[in-house]
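Backbones bend. To wit:
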Amino acid sequence: DCPDGKVLLYHEQPFEVYNKIVKTFRPFEPLSQEISDRVFIHPSAIIEPNVIIAPNVKIGKYAYIQSNVIIHEHTIIGNHVTINSGSVIGTDAFYFKKKAGTYKKWRSGGRVIIEDRVDIGAACTISKGVSGDTIIGAGSKLDCQVHIGHGVVLGKNCLLAAQVGIGGKTIIEDDVILYGQVGVAQSIRIGAKA
C-alpha cells in the first residue's frame, strides 16, 4: 500500500533512476570561490580566515567557525554553534552500489543540519545524507576526530569523545554518551541516556 501523500515508483534499475533524479535536481557544482555568493551568514557569526563555504549554506546567530573548516552545499548551522579548525561538514555519503565487479558512487542528495548550541571539535567529519538529512541535535558536543556517517540522527545533549565513529542511518537518542574510539554500526538505534 502506498502511504498517504506519497508516490511509489517501480523500476528494474532503481539505483540508476535515483542517481539520475538526484543529479538532475541537485547537480554537482564545483567550488569556484572561498565563500559562495549563495550563502546566508548571520551578521553576528564569526568566520575565521580560510573557511570554505559552498552554495546554499545557512549559518545562524553567534556561530563561530574556525579557520580551515569546509562546509559543503546545503548545510544548515544553527545558533551558538562552534566548529573547530579542520572539520569538514557535509561530505558526500560513503555510499556505493556494486555492479559488474566495480563500485558506482551514489549521488548524495541530503543535507547536514546542525542544531543550536552544538560544539564540534577539530578534524571532525560529518557526511550528508543520501536521500535524507544528517542531524546533530541541539546541545550535543563532539570531541576532536569524530566521524558521523550519512543520515545519522544524533539526539540532543549527546557527548561524543575523540575518535568515535557512527555508521550511516543510525539513530542515537537524547543524552547518550560515547567515550573515545567507540564504533557504532550502521542502521541501529541507541536509546536515550545510554
Observations:
- The chain has a mean pLDDT of 95.
- The first helix runs from residue 14 to 25.
